Amino acid sequence: MTRGRESNIAYVALDKPDEGHAPPEPDEVNAHTVLYGVLQHSGAELSAHQMIVEEQERWSSIAQLGAEYETIGAVAQRERWIKAIEASGLTPGQVGQVLASDSFGPLTAELRRAEANHHDVDRLLSALVKRRLLDDADDIGAVLISRLQKAAQPKQGKRRREPKLIVGLIAVADGPMSEAMAKALAERADLMEGRAMTLAEQAVEARAPWMKRLGVGPTTDAARRRWLHEVRTVAAYRDRYRVEGRRVLGEPRSDAQKLDAARAEQAIRRARAIADDAATNQEGLSRTLESGGRALG
């Protein structure tokens, strides 16, 4: 393309088709069709600024930070879980089978989730091993995972404690570990919490369509903080699984995503309840003030 003071002319090559694009039929090849095809397909490289922004967005996402946290947590807690498995009542041969199996990683993840739900994992694991014989199990680790999933649900009751979850989704990796590992985990947890809250506030300000199910944000400070706390879990879920569009949670595709979707769904219900209670209280206050005004009048 020329750059001139009076005119600019675009020259289009017709004899050497671009193999990266589907060319038109031979009798349709002309300057207009080729130029139209080029404009329909952007093959231009991103600018330096665009690349920096996209890279920063990718590396600061809940998807990336969550994956890093899970990986670091698995390494940091590995020796601890090995000791727990060795002391669980399994025979040395069974311990070796569990440690060498593909289910060892998922098993340690389940143990971390159980601990996040305030279970004593050492006692719980021993109880699950003693529940039924494991001699005929093809994959002892998989059997223990199944038993853990059924037994290690959040504890019920009036004084139920909230699970130890980062952004309401990711189980905290706790217990004895090196100072470096603990620092790395804490840094990523803080980054995730900060990003989730920022995303929640942006969604509220932009009146994102997916926010409709969560109700209208309360106006009082205390209620609004509690409401935003739930919104940030939903925002974190959407960021972790790259959910876009009006549907709040999209379509879960894996067992891990289904588990997080259930937690996000609970956050949606809690947010809506907080919003509805705040609206009811506000209506009651307005009626009281109105009645008081009439009485004074």
Descriptors:
mainly alpha; two-stranded antiparallel ribbon; about 60% helix
Word description of this protein:
The chain has 297 residues and is mostly helical. Among the domains are: 61-171, no CATH class; 207-290, no CATH class. Helix content is 61%, strand content 1%. The protein is built from 10 helices and 2 strands; from the N terminus they run αααααααββααα. The protein has helices at residues 31-40, 48-59, 62-86, 92-100, 104-116, 121-131, 140-151, 179-206, 221-240, 255-296; strands spanning 165-166, 170-171. The chain has a two-stranded antiparallel ribbon. A hairpin with a 3-residue loop joins β1 and β2 (170-171). α3 (62-86) runs antiparallel to α8 (179-206), α5 (104-116) runs parallel beside α7 and α9 (221-240) runs antiparallel to α10. The protein is extended, with a radius of gyration of 28 Å. Mean pLDDT is 84; it is low at 20-25.
Topology, please?
Layout: H1 31-40, H2 48-59, H3 62-86, H4 92-100, H5 104-116, H6 121-131, H7 140-151, E1 165-166, E2 170-171, H8 179-206, H9 221-240, H10 255-296
